[in-house]
Amino acid sequence: MRELLLIGIGTGNPRHLTQEAIDAIHHADVVLLPHKGRGKSELAQVRLGILQTLGIAPEKLAHFDMPLRRQTGDDYGQQVQEWHAAIARRWADTLAAHTAATPGAAAPHRVALLVWGDPALYDSTLRIAALLGLAPAQVRVVPGITAMQVLCSAHGIALNDVGAPFQVTTGRQLVEGGWPAGVDTLIVMLDGQRAYEQVTEPEADIFWGAYLGMPQQLLMSGPLQAVKPHISAERARAREQHGWIMDIYLLRRPRTTPPGDAAD
To answer: What are the start and end residues of each CATH 3.40.1010.10 domain in the chain?
Structure first.
């Protein structure tokens, strides 16, 4: 492999692909296509639909099953390291099998992976790629539209208040550390434990979205304390229906810090 292309595909809407992403996909010799189990087959179908829209030949696709992460014990960091190593091995094994299945075929020069959102934001693909022993120049990142951009656009809101910072965090961090001091706007990702249910800020608002950019997109917003049970009910219903859910939300409380310098 001469080059590994990590291509941000946004939230799964083919219209959100940049021209750079489209060009990179077309230039790839092989596209690795992960499958995350029967309950999440729809996720693979979204990626496959993008590739079919672009006219990518089926023989260029190398399908593989994602290894499961060990979730026993309290050594979360070690669990993630083991999982990343297993994924890297699966990539290498899949490429070897794909090459062997085509008699006389040379090893692919450019290998592509389609990454949800942007490869640089709360995604581990870059860290997994580092385990392959490639030189930095051999790994090319193609940026993608992030879920927080699509969330704010869908709700018609600005990401930040005037001259104020915002923070991107995870549900786990919100539960363990609470609402960070000095920050009034939070974007919360990777929240499988519904951390918003534990937030007690009485005047906070929430702007929630799931399956952003997809036909099944869901949106809900309003005062957090009033809306959160409805979000949890809708979230459970959608997860049961589709077998998976990808959601994100913005929390905003009244300004507790003085405004900074406003843009001209």
So the answer is: 3-145
Q: Using CB atoms within 10 A of its CB, is residue 98 exposed (0-12), middle (13-18) or buried (19+)?
A: buried
- Give pLDDT tens digits along the chain (264 positions): 789 999 999 998 899 999 999 999 999 999 999 998 776 777 888 899 999 999 999 999 999 999 988 888 888 889 999 999 999 999 999 999 988 887 666 678 899 999 999 999 999 999 999 999 989 899 999 999 999 999 999 999 999 999 899 999 999 999 999 999 999 999 999 999 999 999 999 999 999 999 999 999 999 999 999 999 999 999 999 999 988 899 999 999 998 766 655 444
Fold type of domain 148-252: 3.30.950
Q: pTM of the prediction?
A: 0.86
